[in-house]
Amino acid sequence: MLTPRKRPRQQRSRETVAAILEAAAQLFQRQGHAATTTNQIAERAGVSIGSLYQYFPNKDALLVELADHHLNAAAEQIALVFTRAAEQRPALDRLLADLVRCVAALHTDRPDLHRLLFEEAPRTPELVARFRQAERLIASALAGELRRLGVGGPAPEMNALFAVQGIEAQVHGALLDPPAGTSVADCLRAVLLLWERALAEPYEHRRASSAP
Amino acid sequence: MLTPRKRPRQQRSRETVAAILEAAAQLFQRQGHAATTTNQIAERAGVSIGSLYQYFPNKDALLVELADHHLNAAAEQIALVFTRAAEQRPALDRLLADLVRCVAALHTDRPDLHRLLFEEAPRTPELVARFRQAERLIASALAGELRRLGVGGPAPEMNALFAVQGIEAQVHGALLDPPAGTSVADCLRAVLLLWERALAEPYEHRRASSAP
DNA sequence: CAATAATGCGAGCTATCCTCAGTTTTGGGT
DNA sequence: ACCCAAAACTGAGGATAGCTCGCATTATTG
Prior knowledge:
Oligomer: homodimer
Order of helices and strands of chain A: HHHHHHHHH
């Protein structure tokens, strides 16, 4: 059982839970996950260790909850890109540019939290599942736009998912460990160009001179 | 200090280290990282806990060492793809097909170990750095081939790196969590097609002859 | 065959996660 | 206003895992 062991019903307990999460976020960011003890978190939150364990079954559950918040916030930002796309019906290059910019912003907005969740924390199955779910949500929205534009090949859903996974990995790499002698902006531009080329029509099969 | 605290100099100690790593691999795979204790590892390896800590400064160092072995094995497999490419000088689609097939094989060969290292284990900075290093090595080899083929855009190095990062993420996703109603083979084919399109030159279709 | 270095040992220290029995606070019913 | 069951809170301490350290054992050197 990784989900809360008890639901806070009164106002007081909801504040307790919020304080615990806030404290956990701060300490995890400052000291790392392993170096932070649950007693420290409780102390900083101004509650007893027992209260912490009334709402979180173990230390990792705090991480999962923080990740969930972060992913929801991210999904919201990305959703904004797609609602704007639904209104303005931009061309592929414009849409992808917005998407890449948004993904990059998600990394740079809270770099420490992002690094904590993606590079340091032990990944519980729970955490992995939530990440995958967010990925699919975004991919689904992107697939809709690809269909509207008549691009993305014969299976836009699949290609949209791969695009989301690829862009995430590439932007992540570009921001945390940019290739020597290249600006981050250049990297993002290059990523954008790659995906424009990968997804744009014509999508005819070029079997020019060699077998599969 | 995450690297070995003492180097094994005699045959006896080298065997001890090997036994410890073997035991660690087995137990980590069977029970997961967190559920495995260092005392269990020592016991299974047939050595005392003190001996373990003579060669590994902490529990995570075992993981780093296992990851290092795994990455070296992977790099070797991939290097094979590129030495063969150097001989046969295949076209882009053929080269990418080999690469994707090889990456997929690395995932399916030892799925439990791979999952351990990529999805469960806490990622120490050391571990992350080694991943990045392997990535760059492969990207560098790929960039060479792209240059030979005259594709990969104006900055083949950068695009090769993005391709490696993207392919890894996409193959990983396709194998561990394939989209509903799609076979793994279909996914891999789709990934391949995306990267063919992303990297191939649309404007200049000159068949490369011998320019470095 | 000393003498010295390398290796191996394992009881136990330290520190962390988490429990639980008991206390305090809250809010709805009378 | 008052009562009281449910909700919330408390913190000392149990259980356990990572890791240390002084000493025994085995190998290597001169």
